[in-house]
Amino acid sequence: MALDHAILVSLLEKPGSGYELARRFERSIGYFWTATHQQIYRVLKRMEQDGWIDVREVPQQGRPDKKEYSVAERGRDALSAWLQEPIEPESVRHDLAVKIRGAAFDDPAGLISEVERHREAHTGRLAHYLAGEARDFGEPPEDDTLDAERELQHVVLRGGIAYERMMIAWLDDVLATLDRFRAGP
């Protein structure tokens, strides 16, 4: 996936400034597609030149005017074309898994603190996802109409929650396995 498509999706959900877009990446979409502020601004500039987004100056009191970006028709067409293209299932590239296998040739118990650090990070991310789910999806909509944007955002979040739970369970298994190699008293 190109950063362009992630930006288009985010701007279709809600137009905003480059700063606001970068914050959204940090808060939600960034858990599935990461980008630095610099990358986002560079792609926004290119997308503007390509006619994929529209930019409007928004006056601000006591501060420089800000640019608000929204998706232009060419951007919608580009996203639509990309949505129709098949993509290959992702391969997992996991440095920690290679380290765990490699530990057989060193001190397996020496990896315990690293695995614990990863478990802590996944536990934190799971807590963040669950808090976001409670905040954004805790209450059903007031009417019974199907809201595709809301439902699709939620199903992606549920995938992130399931992934983090799976990673924590796997890391617990790894820790139990590594613990058997600790030097005894």
Account of the 3D structure:
Residues 92-179 form the Transcription regulator PadR C-terminal domain. This is PadR family transcriptional regulator. InterPro entries: Tscrpt_reg_PadR_C, Tscrpt_reg_PadR_N, WH-like_DNA-bd_sf, WH_DNA-bd_sf. This protein has 7 helices and 2 strands; from the N terminus they run H-H-H-E-E-H-H-H-H. The protein is mainly α and 185 residues long. The longest helix has 32 residues, at 148-179. The chain is elongated. The mean pLDDT is 89.
Could you outline the blueprint of secondary structure elements for this entry?
Blueprint: H1 3-13, H2 18-27, H3 37-49, E1 53-58, E2 66-71, H4 73-84, H5 95-102, H6 112-137, H7 148-179
Antiparallel strand pairs: 1-2
Work out the helix count: 7
Structural class call reads mainly alpha
Strand content: 5-15%
| pLDDT averaged over residues | 89
How many β-strands, per DSSP? 2
Numbering strands along the chain, what is their spatial order in the largest sheet? Answer: 1-2
Instruction: Based on Cα principal axes, name the global outline.
Output: elongated
Q: What low-confidence regions span 5 or more consecutive residues with pLDDT below 50? A: none
Fraction of helical residues: 55-70%
Distance between the termini: 51 Å
List the secondary-structure elements in sequence, H or E.
HHHEEHHHH
Instruction: Give me the Rg, rounded.
Output: 21 Å
Largest sheet composition: 2 strands, antiparallel
